[in-house]
């Protein structure tokens, strides 16, 4: 599929520039730390679309002894993640094809990875994520809205990358339909190179169970 192959090639070729921009990007660090504060020590965490390990690095620095599994389709990003968060377990895999046992993780991160998935793929992935989360398990989800879907150049890559701009309303409905209740939604402006502004959306959610252990 062209949009995937071109996107991954761009990430492979520009992984260092991406790492340099986002590994310590303060607006995202702040959101990640706020979510980490909600997590108990020693839990199992899944980081999907882990990139160069910018989330994983924050998880390790938190000192909570998390067990971390990271997945990304870019081999070069995985190499960087292994350097940035050596305590994590990282593998190169398509997040659309993941398969884990039910209730395998206490928390899942989807940090700006659904921006490369269409609506059908997002629905399928979030259904899986809900299944992989334990009862009361937590989800960190971030994405952008405000532009049209398509290939575009970025601040870290002159090679084009395909982006989907999902609406917060549609993502919220998918979450709720899959027993993931919203803890908090935050938005912040992101200035683009062309002077336009897109909106970064951050959602903290948790899997809901009734007292008898069934999904609400």
What low-confidence regions span 5 or more consecutive residues with pLDDT below 50? none
**How many DSSP E strands?**
9
Largest sheet report: 7 strands, mixed
CATH class: Alpha Beta
Number of domains: 1
Strand residue content: 25-35%
Order of helices and strands: HHHEHEHEEHEEEHEE
Question: How would you write the strand order of the largest sheet?
Answer: 3-2-1-4-5-9-8
**C-alpha termini separation:** 37 Å
Number of helices: 7
What characteristic shape results from the CA principal axes? globular
Whole-number mean pLDDT: 94
What structural class do the secondary elements suggest?
alpha/beta
Question: CATH-wise, what's the superfamily?
Answer: Vaccinia Virus protein VP39
Radius of gyration: 16 Å
Structural account:
This protein is of the alpha/beta class. It has a single domain (2-207), classed as Rossmann fold, CATH 3.40.50.150. Helices cover 34% and strands 30% of the residues. The chain has 7 helices and 9 strands; from the N terminus they run αααβαβαββαβββαββ. It has helices at 2-13, 15-22, 26-36, 54-61, 75-84, 119-132, 168-177, and strands spanning 44-48, 67-72, 89-92, 105-111, 133-145, 150-152, 161-163, 180-191, 197-207. A 7-stranded mixed sheet has the order 3-2-1-4-5-9-8, with helices on both faces. The chain has a two-stranded antiparallel sheet with strand order 6-7. Helix 3 (26-36) packs across helix 4 (54-61). The N and C termini lie far apart (37 Å). The mean pLDDT is 94.
């Amino acid at each position: 599929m062209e949009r995937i192959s071109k996107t991954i090639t761009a990430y492979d070729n520009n992984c260092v520039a991406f790492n340099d921009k986002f590994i310590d990007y303060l607006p995202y660090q702040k959101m990640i730390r706020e979510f980490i504060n909600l997590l108990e020590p020693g839990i199992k965490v899944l980081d999907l679309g882990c990139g160069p390990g910018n989330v994983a690095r924050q998880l390790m620095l938190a000192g909570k002894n998390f067990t971390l599994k990271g997945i990304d389709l870019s081999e070069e990003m995985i190499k960087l993640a292994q350097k940035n968060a050596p305590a994590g377990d990282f593998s190169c895999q398509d997040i659309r094809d993941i398969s884990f046992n039910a209730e395998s993780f206490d928390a899942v991160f989807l940090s700006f990875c659904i921006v490369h998935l269409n609506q059908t793929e997002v629905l399928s992935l979030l259904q899986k994520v809900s299944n992989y989360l334990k009862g009361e398990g937590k989800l960190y989800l971030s994405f952008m809205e405000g532009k049209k879907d398509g290939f575009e150049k970025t601040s870290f890559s002159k090679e084009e990358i395909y982006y989907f701009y999902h609406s917060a309303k549609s993502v919220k409905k998918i979450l709720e339909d899959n027993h993931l209740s919203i803890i908090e939604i935050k938005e912040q402006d992101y200035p683009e190179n062309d002077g336009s502004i897109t909106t970064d959306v951050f959602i903290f959610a948790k899997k809901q169970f009734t007292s008898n252990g069934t999904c609400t």
